[in-house]
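For homework, think about our next protein:
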Amino acid sequence: MPFSILAADHTGITVSNLERSLAFWRDVLGFELSHRAHQKGELAEQITGVRGAEILIAVVKVPGHKIELLEYRAPADRKQVELRPCDVGSVHVALTVDNLDAVLEAVAASGWKAAGQPQTLTTGPNAGKRVIYVRDPDGTTIEFMQPPASS
């Protein structure tokens, strides 16, 4: 290969309400606000390929990962789609947590909801982990994973 991927920098999530999403990631999950930005004009158009793009951005972080929350203010013809995890183009972020039940209580209190019930994986490299998908009001999926207790 004539190049190398050096690292994964962040995961970007387009949201309908930046302040609501920022409150969840920061106040419910404990991510730290790194910075905010406002992109528009040719810069935003050339980066995204979206004509007329205007974007409010907030980047939040925890050890090992950053989430870039993007609220597009323009163009006016942007769409809200409701992808299911099985639909092509659907993505999710997986976060390792130390107390899945406490996370689910905080998530429920914030207006997000679990897709089902936590399950313990029995095979593969994640065997023993308890996992669950949750979805935000925009339909964004986060997978929470709790490793098995140390023996």
Notes: The chain has three helices and nine strands. The longest helix spans residues 18-28. The mean pLDDT is 93. The radius of gyration is 17 Å.
